[in-house]
Design a protein that fits this description.
globular, four-stranded antiparallel beta sheet, alpha+beta, 7 strands, 129 residues, 6 helices
């Protein structure tokens, strides 16, 4: 069998989210209490953090996962990678960083736990599978 035939087609993170019933899932958010998934559309996953309703594009989740797969990734890395998504200072939202890590963790796509304290000198981080 050729190498081409032996390659397993990679499943996107977003397709795994679609198969899981994430609606109602509650993730811990040390700064604002919790993050609760409220809805999943064909394009995005919506969640409440504190009093804000936020969303993260499924395409962005897939792109970000592929960019950091098999690496240690911190919120600072995410903010440099896509500041318009992951940085409140650049038109995105800092909460998207922790939410991204929680989604990967729920899908068993990180090694160990989410680390860090969510502060400048101790940002959240994860070892992405």
């Amino acid at each position: 069998m050729s190498d081409e035939n032996m390659q397993i087609k990679e499943i996107s993170v977003s397709s795994q989210i679609d198969r899981q019933n994430f609606i109602g899932t509650i993730f811990e958010n040390p700064k604002k209490g919790t993050m609760t998934v409220t809805r999943i559309s064909k394009d995005a996953i919506y969640f409440i953090s504190g009093k804000s309703t936020l969303s993260l594009s499924l395409n962005i989740i897939d792109e970000t996962y592929k960019a950091f797969k098999r690496n240690l990734c911190s919120c600072n890395d995410l903010k440099r990678y896509k500041p318009d998504i992951y940085s409140s200072k650049e038109g995105g939202n800092d909460e998207n960083c922790l939410f991204f890590f929680h989604v990967l963790n729920a899908l068993n796509l990180i090694n160990g736990d989410i680390g860090g304290k969510g502060k400048r000198k101790s940002p959240y981080f994860a070892h992405i599978k």
